């Protein structure tokens, strides 16, 4: 009995030490941070919460069903061959442009400023990136060293498929500023990003940055990078407005009235980057179903929609191209203009003239 207790204590000690030493997990907010967060309307009972409770049906029976579905799998949960990629254009002058790198990672060039959105460039979204299957494209369509000087990295939350330790370590030296929701700055500071480069924001806070107007806006989701830090940091969407263009980046979210509130306050948007993928009816409160993606685009008063959060990793049970296929069908039904550039293709934002955007259903043949 005594030996068993000793072994359990040792295992717990090793686990606690590993959680503290392994940098990928990031860092929990300090006591001073927590006192600061207590002023946020989103913070209650020592954690951030959604105003619309995010109900996830995770009963024992449901969990068994999810495990069964994941083990059973589907031949189309991953593409049969690596997805096609194109070489991006890193020209920071001239027209507003956007380049999608798969999942939610994008480079936005607006008013001559280069903004990286949720730059996850790693092989797999995991605290142990050497485990698991590689991204669908096999990699990214450029060398990170080729990136231009980045004026700002904009993060939506701290999940591994959006905030990647390896990617931040490779780009941090060429980033002027990091804009993040409350609490996420602690991760970056642990990874060597100077605190002076980091701005943390709550929902509805507005920021002026080198001629751009940014706003940290709501999302219905959650956060966490380890076993005991759920809700320790905030999650959000972002409004990005320049002289020539207006962009909405949804982050991860379930469908709630916050999209209409954002549209009423900040719309219309020339382009929306809308979450579309990794969904399931069992967790529909924290991820948009494809038809909801289209409706959320309409709610924020978007002109052209680009679906994101798909095309890189298998994090749900649906077919890999089901998100874009369903979104395309819903867009046609509702008269929404949708663009689906291949990974790496740089597109110029040209208002609502969707005919001027390159558009191929490359995901049908992939």
Automatic annotation (TrEMBL):
Pfam families listed in its UniProt record: Lactamase_B_2
SUPFAM superfamilies: Metallo-hydrolase/oxidoreductase
Occurrences of domain Metallo-beta-lactamase (ranges): 115-310
InterPro entries tied to this protein: Metallo-B-lactamas, NAPE-PLD, RibonucZ/Hydroxyglut_hydro
Residue ranges of the TM segments: 6-25
Recorded catalytic activity of this chain's protein: 3',5'-cyclic UMP + H2O = UMP + H(+); 3',5'-cyclic CMP + H2O = CMP + H(+)
Record's signal peptide: none
Coiled coil (residue ranges): none
Superkingdom of origin organism: Bacteria
Keywords: Membrane, Transmembrane, Transmembrane helix
Task performed by this protein: Counteracts the endogenous Pycsar antiviral defense system. Phosphodiesterase that enables metal-dependent hydrolysis of host cyclic nucleotide Pycsar defense signals such as cCMP and cUMP.
Protein name in the entry: Metallo-beta-lactamase domain-containing protein
Organism: Paenibacillus allorhizoplanae
